[in-house]
Amino acid sequence: MILDAYQLYGRLQKQDLLRGKPPMWWPNYGSFEVVVGAILTQNANWKRVELSLENLRSQKLLELENLCQIDTQELQRLISPSGLYRAKAEYIIQLARAIQASFSNFENFCAEVNRAWLLKQKGIGLESADSILCYACKKDAMVVDAYTKRLLSALEREFESYSALQAWCEEGLRVHFDAGELPKVFALFHGMIVEFVKAHSKNKKVNVESLK
């Protein structure tokens, strides 16, 4: 039986789930690209997101200043592989312009932004906000998602809300790691959960025998 998040983290870590992945799991950790990717990945397969990101990269539109100037229809065309491109283009442009207006540049945004500000932005929910904080801004925010819920459910732990699941994940690790380590720990913990569930699922049922 998994008693807490620290124990789960240790058992996942032993399985070397992140071999061959980027150092902090999310590609281009700490860059503005992650902000864009956090929106594109909503209801989308990551391989489709990568196609959209490559389109943007080829036009130098993974830079805040350039993205703020783009025509909406052009952005829709470039991100169309990710689906829901009309809504996502609106969210991305509005967020980019809000970042520029409130923080001037991406570096200031990373240093000063908080979750409350992100959640006020159109198209940014809890998971997207925490993904941006964790993987773009390198802050100690634990992302929990459908993969996390499925894994914990298979381990016979149910949570009533996103916040309750996140609290369980964070509290079990905060007591074992220094504050300076937590951004990395939370980033890798989420990544290991996603990779484990992908590798051990069949018909949406997660096999957790290797974690017991």
Descriptive overview:
With about 210 residues, the chain is an all-alpha fold. It has two domains: about 5-20 and about 140-210, Endonuclease Iii, domain 2 (Orthogonal Bundle); about 30-135, Endonuclease III, domain 1 (Orthogonal Bundle). It has helices at about 5-15, 30-40, 45-60, 65, 70-80, 85-105, 105-110, 115-120, 125-135, 145-155, 160-175, 180-200, and strands spanning about 200, 205. The chain has a two-stranded antiparallel ribbon. The protein is globular and about 55 Å long. The N and C termini lie close together (about 5 Å).
How is this structure best summarized?
The protein has helices at 5-13, 32-40, 46-58, 64-67, 72-79, 85-103, 106-112, 115-119, 126-136, 146-154, 162-174, 182-199; strands spanning 201-202, 205-206. By secondary structure, it is an all-alpha fold.
Main attributes of the structure:
single chain; 212 residues; mainly alpha; Endonuclease Iii, domain 2; Endonuclease III, domain 1; 2 domains; two-stranded antiparallel ribbon; 2 strands; 59% helix; 2% strand
Find the CATH superfamily of the largest domain: Hypothetical protein, domain 2
The low-confidence runs, each spanning 5 or more residues with pLDDT under 50, are: none
- Count of domains: 2
Largest sheet: 2 strands, antiparallel
Number of helices: 12
Topology (SSEs and partners):
Elements (H helix, E strand, L loop, with lengths): L4 H9 L18 H9 L5 H13 L5 H4 L4 H8 L5 H19 L2 H7 L2 H5 L6 H11 L9 H9 L7 H13 L7 H18 L1 E2 L2 E2 L6
Antiparallel strand pairs: 1-2
Helix pairs in contact: 1-11, 2-3, 2-6, 2-9, 5-6, 6-7, 10-12
